[in-house]
Design goal:
This protein has 68 residues and is an all-alpha fold. 56% of the residues lie in helices and 0% in strands. The model has no long low-confidence stretch (mean pLDDT 83). The longest helix has 18 residues.
Length: 68
C-alpha cells in the first residue's frame, strides 16, 4: 500500500483528483449488488387447471399480456 501512496504522491497535484475519481469508480464497480435470480413463486400455481388450459393457450395469453 505504501508503494501506491508513493506513486500517487509523485504525480502532479492536478492528477491527484483524477486518481481519486478512478479509485471511487473502481470501488463502485465492485460494490454493485449481485443480480437477483427470478423467483419461482408461481411454480405449481396452475396445477389444478392443467386440463382446462393448454401450454399453447398460455403462450397466446402471455403474448397478449406483453402487447404483441
Amino acid at each position: 500500500m505504501q508503494n501506491l501512496e508513493k506513486k500517487v504522491k509523485s504525480l502532479p497535484l492536478d492528477l491527484h483528483e483524477e486518481v481519486e475519481d478512478y479509485i471511487d469508480f473502481l470501488i463502485k464497480k465492485r460494490m454493485k449488488p449481485a443480480k437477483k435470480r427470478v423467483g419461482l413463486t408461481w411454480k405449481g400455481a396452475l396445477r389444478d387447471d392443467n386440463e382446462k388450459i393448454s401450454s399453447v393457450d398460455l403462450q397466446h395469453k402471455s403474448l397478449a399480456w406483453w402487447g404483441k
